[in-house]
Amino acid sequence: MAVDLSPTPDVAELVERTTAFVRDVVIPxxxxxxxxxxxxxxxxxxxxxxxxxxxxxxxxxxEYGGHGLDMRGRxxxxxxxxxxxxxxxxxxxxxPDEGNMHLLEAIATDQxxxxxxxxxxxxxxxxxxxxxxxxxxxxSDPNALTTVAEREEGGWRINGHKWFITGxxxxxxxxxxxxxxxxxxxKAGATxxxxxxxxxxxxxxxxxxxxxxxxxGGHLEVLFEDCRVPDDAVLGEVDEGFRxxxxxxxxxxxxxxxxxxxxxxxxxxxxxxxxxxxxAFGSRLGELGMVQQMIADNEIDIAASRGLITQACWELDQGxxxxxxxxxxxxxxxxxxxxxxxxxxxxxxxxxxxxxxxLSRFLxxxxxxxxxxxxxxxxxxxxxxRVLRRHDTEVRR
Length: 397
Fold this sequence. Notes:
Layout: H1 9-32, H2 40-53, H3 71-81, H4 87-91, H5 97-107, H6 110-121, E1 127-130, E2 148-152, E3 155-166, E4 173-181, E5 189-196, E6 202-207, E7 219-230, E8 234-235, H7 241-277, E9 279-280, E10 283-284, H8 289-317, H9 323-348, H10 350-353, H11 359-366, H12 376-396
Parallel strand pairs: 1-4
Antiparallel strand pairs: 2-3, 3-7, 4-5, 5-8, 6-7, 9-10
GO molecular function: flavin adenine dinucleotide binding; medium-chain fatty acyl-CoA dehydrogenase activity
EC number: 1.3.8.7
Protein name: Acyl-CoA dehydrogenase
C-alpha cells in the first residue's frame, strides 16, 4: 500500500495561501530591509497583513484566534512561511513566541492563558524564554541551572544571571526557569515563573553581538536580582520545570527545522535560477557536472530533512515523547540546511557573496542553528546513549 504524506485539503489550501502571501507581501520588505526587521512598524504591518490574508497564527487553537493545526499540519505551513526570514514574524510563528504559546496552551491556568497567552497569540505582545545562563550555568546541560527561586511570604524571590535570551528586548514578559529544590544536578527541581517585563527585579543588561540578526528582539543578557513574583506567577507545578521544558523543546526543535527548511528551499531556488541563466565556459552553469551535483545534493538534503521532520511530527501528534526522532531530525536538518545554503551561495559565486541577493544573510542566520536548541554534538551523544540502552534492554530479554 502506498504511503500518502500529502497534507489534508484544508492544510494544503492554507499552504497555498501562505506561499502566495510570502511571495507577494513578505519578500519585498524582507529584501528592502536586508532580512533584518528592527522596528515594531515592520512587525505590526506584516502581522496585520497576515490576519487580512487569513494565514495568521496557524499553530494556535481556534479559541485563541488560530487555525489549530497539529504538528504535521504545521510542518507544511511553517516551511512555506519560512521561505522568507520575515515570514515567521508575519504569521506570529517565530521563536521564541511560537514555543511559548505551545507551552502556555499546554500547562497554564485559565487565568494565565487570558493574561499571557491570548495577547501573545494575537500579536499584541511578545515574550521571551529565560533558561540559558553564562558558563558555568545552564546551557546544553539544563541541570547546570544556577538561577534560584526561594519561597517568601506571598510568593517567590528569584536571583540569577541569564544570557542569550532571544526576543527579550521589547518582550512583555519572560518565562523564567529557576532552581527551587536541591543542589545536586541529578536530583534538583526547577520551576517556571511568569515574570512581567516591568518587574523592577528583572533587568536587561545588553544586546549580545551575534552572527545572526533576524530573530526579532535580539539575544540579550538579563539579570534577575531579588525579583519578587506572587504565587500565581508559577507556571505549572513547582519543581516540574525540567519536565515542562520537554513539552516545549521537542516541538520547538521541529518548528525551527520547518522554518529553516523554507530558507533552504529559497536558497536552492535562487541557485537554480542562476544556474539556468548564467553562461560560463561555453554553456550554462546548470549544464556543468559539478554544478549539477550541488543542485542534486541540495534536493537530497531538502527531501531527507522533510522526511525526518514528518516522522518526528507524526510521533509528537501520537502523544509520544519523540525524543529520539526529534534529536535525529534536529541534528540532520541543522547540518543539511547549512549545506544547502552554502552550496547555493557557491553556485552563485560573487553574486552569492554580494548583498544583491540574500544568500549571505541566510548563511549567517542558519549557521547558529547547529548550536541553538542543543548543539549537534549534544544530540549525537543523546542519540547514541538511547541506541546503547535499547541494545542492553534487548540483550537482557
